[in-house]
Amino acid sequence: MNATDRLTELFMRFPGIGPKQARRFVYFLLREHSHYKEQLIKALEELKFTGKQCDMCFRFFGDKSQNNKKLLCDICDSESRDVSVFMIVEKELDVDAVEKTGSYDGLYFILGGLVPPLTEKPSELIRIRELTGRIHKALEEEKLIEVIFALPVTDYGDTTKEYVEKTIKQIVGIEKVTLSNLARGLSSGLELEYVDRDTFKSALEHRG
Ligand SMILES: [Zn+2]
């Protein structure tokens, strides 16, 4: 297989990219200056060694250090964040979107997916074991006060929330932790990925 076909196949593995779009990327690269291609190759080369996953929130991040100590992303590792609250989101992009609003200073937990209605084994679809582990640990250290749900306002989002809420309530005395939700109704389908600063700020302030 030649390089263009191989690249097309590799691009097709990107989320949401079909064969036509993949081919378009390849043609774009063929036209582009070698300087751009060198930058791309260099960035990919670096990613090969630095793509790590945070032990606390499960976000992927770039880390050049070679040590094997507990891996924490810059958010979980920061001393200026409020460790008494964490926000449960579906995916990495949600974290990026919330961070961009600059109106939240707590921590995060990325579920890594959503649970469709009537699923028999929801624990296999999201990081529920990791989440309960994290809650246990935070309670032991007397850190956790509030868990904020920031899941999509859809059937999947609601099913996921119900399942996670039920599981949390089973493991912790509910008086110890406040479970809250971002306010809805500002826009009927609040999708974190596309939320603007004011909408998010208002949804956070009016959570309940
Ligand atoms: Zn993290």
Short description:
20% of the residues are buried.
How does this structure look, described?
With 208 residues, the chain is of the alpha/beta class. It folds into 2 domains: 48 residues, RecR Domain 1 (Helicase, Ruva Protein, domain 3, Orthogonal Bundle), CATH 1.10.8; 127 residues, Dna Topoisomerase Vi A Subunit, Chain: A, domain 2, CATH 3.40.1360. 44% of the residues lie in helices and 11% in strands. It contains 8 helices and 6 strands, in the order αααββαβαβαβαβα. The chain has a 4-stranded parallel β-sheet with strand order 4-3-5-6. Strands 1-2 form a two-stranded antiparallel ribbon. α1 packs across α2 and α6 crosses α7. The longest helix is centred in the first third of the chain and has 17 residues. The protein is globular, with a radius of gyration of 20 Å. The N and C termini lie far apart (56 Å). Zinc ion (ZN) binds next to α4.
Largest sheet: 4 strands, parallel
Kindly report how far apart the N and C termini lie. Answer: 56 Å
SS element count, helices? 8
Order of helix and strand elements from N to C terminus = HHHEEHEHEHEHEH
User: Which class best fits the helix and strand makeup?
Assistant: alpha/beta
Question: Quick one: overall form?
Answer: globular
| Overall residue-averaged pLDDT value | 88
Distinct compounds present: zinc ion
> What fraction, in percent, of the residue positions are helical?
40-55%
Level-1 CATH class name of the largest domain: Alpha Beta
Strand content: 5-15%
What number of domains? 2
The value of Rg in angstroms is 20 Å
Low-confidence stretches: none
How many distinct beta strands?
Answer: 6
Describe the strand arrangement of the main beta sheet, using strand numbers.
4-3-5-6
CATH fold naming of the largest domain? Dna Topoisomerase Vi A Subunit, Chain: A, domain 2
Please state the second-level CATH architecture of the largest domain: 3-Layer(aba) Sandwich
